[in-house]
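Notes from the 1:1 (GR / supervisor)

We went over the backlog. Supervisor wanted to see one worked example end to end before approving the batch request, so GR pasted a single chain during the call. The sequence is below; no edits were made to it. Supervisor asked that the structure be written out right there so they could see what the output format looks like.
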Amino acid sequence: MTIAESDDVVWGAPAIGRVIRKNPRQTYYLLENGLIPARQIGNQWVASRSRLLRAITGDDESAA
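Structure output shown during the call:
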């Protein structure tokens, strides 16, 4: 993994919410219903910043 790839990883629902500009309640709803591209590892959510941004702008139709 390169430094650029590690910078793309967003750990935790609050951080994911900041990327997509949603409050915590909205973010958890999106995560738990599979509406944004993310995975749960243990009890923590993790996502790719670039995939999140593509998904919310509509540039990645297969992201969810």
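Supervisor's comment: The longest strand covers residues 44-48.
Batch request approved.
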